[in-house]
Amino acid sequence: MNVLRDEGYETVRERIMKLLLDNKGEFFTAYQIIALLGLDLKPRDIYRHLEHIAKTIRRRSGGRLVLVMKPPICLNCGYVFKDLDKPRKPSKCPRCHSQRISDPEFAIIEK
Ligand SMILES: [Zn+2]
Questions:
Q1: Which of 14, 18, 52, 111 could form an S-S bond across to 10 if both were Cys, CB 3.0 to 4.6 Å?
Q2: CB atoms inside a 10 Å sphere around CB 40
């Protein structure tokens, strides 16, 4: 049985990874990634892809490259969400309850 393959096809995940690899050391928010790649996605979709990209990039590079996140910050009181276990944007500050939270930013860097 013949299976047709689309040779030029890249998954969204591959495209996000390529964007970060082509711009190593440069930080992007989910909104910037969506705009730059013209994606019809929500930030939470991007965060889900980034979770997988973090594992893939580490494995493919043998640990030489890592995906890092600049954590979100409360724009009202300066609280830094540095204990996040995965990429996301919290909706509320635990200290002052403000909802003005900066977007997390992501980059691939060489260790
Ligand atoms: Zn706050």
A1: 14
A2: 7
Separation of 72 CA from ligand 1 center, angstroms?
A: 11
Does 52 map to a domain? yes
Spacing, Cα 22 to ligand 1 middle (Å)? 34
How far away, in angstroms, is 100 Cα from ligand 1 center? 8
Cα of 103 to ligand 1 centre, how many Å? 14
Largest CA distance in the chain: 62
Could you read off the pLDDT of 38-94 as tens digits, one per residue? 999 999 999 999 999 999 999 999 999 999 999 999 999 999 999 888 899 999 999
pLDDT digits (tens, 9 = 90+) for 95-109: 999 999 999 999 999
Residue 42 located in a structural domain: yes
DSSP 64: S
How many domains is the chain built from? Answer: 1
